[in-house]
C-alpha cells in the first residue's frame, strides 16, 4: 500500500493517464463544459471516476487523481478482508489482504490515474452485497445496493457489462430467496435493472450525445477525430480507409494463454510495464477447488469472475491484461479460503502461522521484485520526502521513456510561439503540453492523413506549424510485428524529406517544423 501511494503522489508518467485519464478532464475544465475534444475520441471512455478527478485537477494537482485511485485500491483490499472475514473467518480475511498484493499489476496500476482498480471496487462491493442478500443477512434491499454499484461500474468502464451479466444468476438467486412468487421475483429484478441503468445513464447519454453510440466504439462505425472531419467531409471512417492502422495496436499482442500469463506477460500486452504483469501464483490453488465444491457462498463468489474471464478472453483473446483486473479480487479471496482450508487439513496448528507467512512471502516475490525495480530506477522516495521536484523526478524517470519525453515537452512549452499548432504522429501523451497539440491516441493520424490531399501542401492547410513524431513508438511496435504498410511509414518518410525541417531530436521523439519545399 505504501508503494502504491509512493507511485500516486509522484508526477503522472504513464501513457494512458497523460493520453486521456488526465488530459480529457483537463480539457473539460479549460472549456468549462463536457465536449468532444478535437483530437481525442477516448472521451468515450471518460466516466464516473473522471468526474471525481475534475475538482482535484481544478485545485492544480496533477497527482491527486492517482492518489484517489490509490485510495480506491486500498479500499479494494479492505473490502476483500471484510468479505472473507464475514463469511470464512479472520484467517481467510488476513490471507486475502496479504495475497492481493501478490499481483504486480495491482501495484503498478493502482498508483496511477487509471481506473481499473476503481472498477474493481464497485464490482466487488456489488458482488458482496448480493452474497449478503443470498445468505439472508441484513435487509433484502441489498440487491438494490448491488444494482446501484453495478451501474456505477458500467459508468466506469465498458467491460463491467460482462461482469454485471455474470452476476445476473446470483442476483436471481438472491432475489428468489426473499420472494414467495415468480411475479415478485421478476418485479424486483426489473427494479434492480432500472436502478443499474439509472446509475449508468449519465455516462451512456454523454456518449450518445458526443459520439452517437452509448458504448462507442462498440456497435458503431469508427469515428474520425473532429479536426480531420473537414478533410473527409464525414464523421466516420470510410470503409477500407486506414483499416490496418485501426486494428494495429490489437494485433501486436499475442492471444492470451496461461503460460505467458505466469511467465512472459509482456507478450500479452503492448504496455512496456506489462512485462511485470505476472499472474499471481496463488491462483494455482484453484486446482483444489473441487474439494470444497459444497461451499455455496464460495462457489457464488468464484464462478461469476471465472465466467467473466471466459467470455472476455473468448470474445477478445488479445485483450489488454488490465481488463482482467475485475476478476483478481474475488478470485484472490477464493484462493485465500482454499489456502487456509488446505493448511488446516495438512498442518498441525502450531505450524499454520509460520508456514502461512512463508508462503505469503514467496507469493509476494514477483510484487517485491517489481517494486524493487521501480524504486531503483526512479526517485519515488526522494520525491515523496520533498528532496526532488516534480520536474527533476520526470527528468530522471528511468522506468520509462519519460526523461526524453519531458525534455521535449519543456522545449515545446518554452520555445515554440504561443500560436503554434503541433501535430503528433504515433504519440498521444498530450497532457503536459501548454501549446496546442493534436494528439494521436489511436496512432491513426498519419494513416488517415496519408490518403488525403493534406500532404500535398505539407499540412499547412490544416494550420499545422510543427510535427512531433514518436520514432520510438514506431520502432517498438514494428519490433512486435506491426507492418510498415499498415501505418504508411514509407509515405511518412517522403513527407519528412519534402516538407519537414528537424528542430529537436531526443531518444524516441523528433520535432519538425513545417517548411514547404521551395
Description:
- The chain is mostly helical and 518 residues long.
- 58% of the residues lie in helices and 5% in strands.
- It is built from 26 helices and five strands.
- The protein has helices spanning 2-9, 15-21, 23-31, 48-58, 64-88, 90-100, 104-110, 116-134, 142-154, 160-176, 182-211, 229-232, 243-246, 248-251, 258-263, 296-315, 325-346, 349-363, 365-377, 380-384, 390-395, 402-415, 445-449, 471-479, 484-487, 489-499, and strands at residues 421-425, 436-438, 466-469, 500-506, 509-514.
- The chain has a five-stranded mixed β-sheet.
- A hairpin with a 2-residue loop joins strand 4 and strand 5 (509-514).
- Helix 5 (64-88) runs antiparallel to helix 6.
- It starts with a helix and ends with a strand.
- The model has no long low-confidence stretch (mean pLDDT 91).
Features:
five-stranded mixed β-sheet; 518 residues; 5% strand; 26 helices; mainly alpha
State the major sheet. Answer: 5 strands, mixed
Count of helical segments? Answer: 26
Tell me the Rg in angstroms. Answer: 25 Å
Note the beta-strand portion.
under 5%
| Oligomeric state of the chains in view | single chain
Provide a quick synopsis of the model.
The protein is mainly alpha-helical.
Per-chain topology:
Blueprint: H1 2-9, H2 15-21, H3 23-31, H4 48-58, H5 64-88, H6 90-100, H7 104-110, H8 116-134, H9 142-154, H10 160-176, H11 182-211, H12 229-232, H13 243-246, H14 248-251, H15 258-263, H16 296-315, H17 325-346, H18 349-363, H19 365-377, H20 380-384, H21 390-395, H22 402-415, E1 421-425, E2 436-438, H23 445-449, E3 466-469, H24 471-479, H25 484-487, H26 489-499, E4 500-506, E5 509-514
Parallel strand pairs: 1-2, 1-3
Antiparallel strand pairs: 3-5, 4-5
